[in-house]
What we know:
Chain A is an all-alpha fold. Among the domains of chain A are: 2-100; 201-347 and 422-501, Neurolysin, domain 3. Chain A has helices at residues 2-34, 41-59, 62-77, 83-100, 103-123, 129-148, 158-164, 170-192, 208-222, 258-276, 293-307, 311-324, 326-329, 334-340, 355-374, 382-394, 410-413, 421-440, 444-448, 454-463, 473-481, 488-501, and strands at 231-233, 239-243, 246-251. Chain A has a three-stranded mixed beta sheet with strand order 1-3-2. The longest helix of chain A has 33 residues, at 2-34. Chain A starts with a helix and ends with a helix. The model of chain A has no long low-confidence stretch (mean pLDDT 97). The A-B interface holds A 16-17, 20-21, 23-25, 27-28, 30-31, 35-44, 46-47, 50-51, 54, 225-230, 232, 242-246, 248, 283-284 and B 16-17, 20-21, 23-25, 27-28, 31, 35-44, 46-47, 50-51, 54, 225-230, 232, 242-246, 248, 283-284.
Amino acid sequence: xxxxxxxxxxxxxxxxxxxxxxxxxxxxxxxxxxxxxxxxxxxxxxxxxxxxxxxxxxxxxxxxxxxxxxxxxxxxxxxxxxxxxxxxxxxxxxxxxxxxxxxxxxxxxxxxxxxxxxxxxxxxxxxxxxxxxxxxxxxxxxxxxxxxxxxxxxxxxxxxxxxxxxxxxxxxxxxxxxxxxxxxxxxxxxxxxxxxxxxxxxxxxxxxxxxxxxxxxxxxxxxxxxxxxxxxxxxxxxxxxxxxxxxxxxxxxxxxxxxxxxxxxxxxxxxxxxxxxxxxxxxxxxxxxxxxxxxxxxxxxxxxxxxxxxxxxxxxxxxxxxxxxxxxxxxxxxxxxxxxxxxxxxxxxxxxxxxxxxxxxxxxxxxxxxxxxxxxxxxxxxxxxxxxxxxxxxxxxxxxxxxxxxxxxxxxxxxxxxxxxxxxxxxxxxxxxxxxxxxxxxxxxxxxxxxxxxxxxxxxxxxxxxxxxxxxxxxxxxxxxxxxxxxxxxxxxxxxxxxxxxxx
Amino acid sequence: xxxxxxxxxxxxxxxxxxxxxxxxxxxxxxxxxxxxxxxxxxxxxxxxxxxxxxxxxxxxxxxxxxxxxxxxxxxxxxxxxxxxxxxxxxxxxxxxxxxxxxxxxxxxxxxxxxxxxxxxxxxxxxxxxxxxxxxxxxxxxxxxxxxxxxxxxxxxxxxxxxxxxxxxxxxxxxxxxxxxxxxxxxxxxxxxxxxxxxxxxxxxxxxxxxxxxxxxxxxxxxxxxxxxxxxxxxxxxxxxxxxxxxxxxxxxxxxxxxxxxxxxxxxxxxxxxxxxxxxxxxxxxxxxxxxxxxxxxxxxxxxxxxxxxxxxxxxxxxxxxxxxxxxxxxxxxxxxxxxxxxxxxxxxxxxxxxxxxxxxxxxxxxxxxxxxxxxxxxxxxxxxxxxxxxxxxxxxxxxxxxxxxxxxxxxxxxxxxxxxxxxxxxxxxxxxxxxxxxxxxxxxxxxxxxxxxxxxxxxxxxxxxxxxxxxxxxxxxxxxxxxxxxxxxxxxxxxxxxxxxxxx
Lengths: 504, 504
């Protein structure tokens, strides 16, 4: 026992050093996206690469493998939900994944995607797919090589999906998406046959400082802890974590669009509150982070969509918003405002899409990346395939590739495969978990209507956040809902909300 | 030759990795002092310690020693001022220093001084020397152990002084300070016998944003490059470098004291412009930083005192300052303002001291730390010894230890010995170098009077900044002035400036 304690302690010491390197790299990334002067760019990229490489080297050290070998029987002798059992189990899984990818491949991958990302930042504004096409070709090749480090898959995307959403496969995501699509397509059709909502009230001039202050008040009420975080401005909003004591969010403000900053703030605050709720004892270990891309997105979507786009929420906050922007909003009714922030339309841009059409955008990308990995779609045909799918699925056509296949950073800055399914899984899970919270506490909507979020936040913290990565997403879903992932609460949520809004 | 090239390349690769770790640590330190929420503190300290330890481990790696052994004859075969010769020579010196201190001692030292620093932050406001005395006792013991890693010294402080100001020893600093003191004491006496300058014009209300904007305009004119830096607010202003492409400064603003932010900004900008002027080819190597504490301070003092406290400077900028703060300054004459920002008085606080008395503050600390290291002054007697020296040297008595021996962070956050002499050496050097610039370009003062700094800045860059650490301070002084360090230009500068101000 003393021997196991000492080995466990050594493992934790090693994991803490790795966490320190990753935490440092996150600080450098945050600074890069918020305050760094241009002149710092070259060295910054190199510094982050060095930290990442050292963290990786230290993690795949055979001494870590030996410790895990020695500790695994001990971990298995403990109850499944014992913290040490979970630490050994989760670290083992991550170690096995990490050691299967040769460092040389990983190095080549990071080096290449840094170049591809940089090229994309110039190619998109120039509508120049031809420059990035050969880079994307190489990314595809490297993505396949990464997947091939995990032989025995059913679909070549399976290992890549598994990295982000453990337990999911191409086939299970496809089945899930098919089921969802069947419900969404008629819903989108019925809604978009109606007169579109008038969102002109959001497109007036709203001074930046007041927008920011309002968003900060809202997420303080949610329970975002400014003693352990802060919000800064950036180009592309994100959440980042340096330790469980320092979890920051960023936002961007458009003075002619009230929705931009507010909903990015509530979205990122949702991600951050998930991390802030993790058991502090898990800090600096593989348990001290959200368990999957899908579960993480479920929390950003809960706070952004289910809470801060709900009518109940605005019953409390709309008078405050009117008091903040009296000239702009005093003549706008709550109903008009609520319809504006939930306007459904067939559009070109995923990140601007409403709740109902959003998942159709995701499915297009998911299907295309699977086809690229399979080899049934070649890079040169990607622009046309993109346009064709938008035409057939959403009935819209981008005037160029800028808002077509050059739109999202994911393929240019990372692997092709595994990046998109988490968004829709997150939407599905947000309603599944929220539904469960309502069963336990039917008073939650009434509380939201008074600007009180404690009951909801505590339920999420106690049932989801606190566990960090202790349980995989499938294990967590089973624990929380007593069954597997299912879409009916999400469909129910959409039908009820948009049924009321559009009098369906 | 190819073999030497390849070894040199390997050395540079290793040094770059070490520089990346140190640069990352600097980013974490900057964030800690500017934006970090309280909750981030614990992990941040640990992360910085991890980065520091890894950088140290990588530097003292015997493989680095082997490379240096192999490269030294090659370096010595090159001209002395060849970049590669300098890189090998300077890295060798730093390596020899670093490897003489056992990692365990260094680890204990960092761990202890982190605790002592933290205790000091609470002890100072509480005027509680007794809490920190035992910690200071240990710091003294560890400082002696550090010095003892370098046997053969004349005075135990010599190795500690040498770390910061290579080539200086206790004896040479004492001789220099005695010479300076002999000139300063009568000057201070003559000035302080007169009616003190009226600085009430500085103590009005000056809104923060306008103060900051004015300071930024000034240092932009100096040539501080905002493409490679930025200024943020903090508690204790400092300059920090992440790479030669990202060199930042911080400042603090007092709305009831116009001098605070402005002169901290010009001071830190001086430090930063030194680093910004270093040959970019030296980035991420031991050549890519200022060569000594004294030379670094000389540049902060040049831009803060010689330039931005000069009457010539304000002939151009005072009308702009009046336009910025018309209500506060329109009735204040340039003469009154200039006397106010150069008010000489016997005071308690080093960092607030004027140019004439400042060095007396430094000498008190330097003498006391030498006595502590020698053992002729025990920690328990430090408070009284401090008071006694302030009484005899400056004729003032602090009401408590808050503004006595608890005043400066240096002994609480680092070694005892070697920390203070650089400030006065910097003052001496600022005038020595400036004097040399004037010999080459007598038009400099006239240009300053027009808000033009290009000639001065270029001369400093070409003669001092560009070299980084290629030459030691003594070598640099010899190169620039044709002789050793001497005080007469500094005495001449003070006598001329204060002779005019006080009609001596």
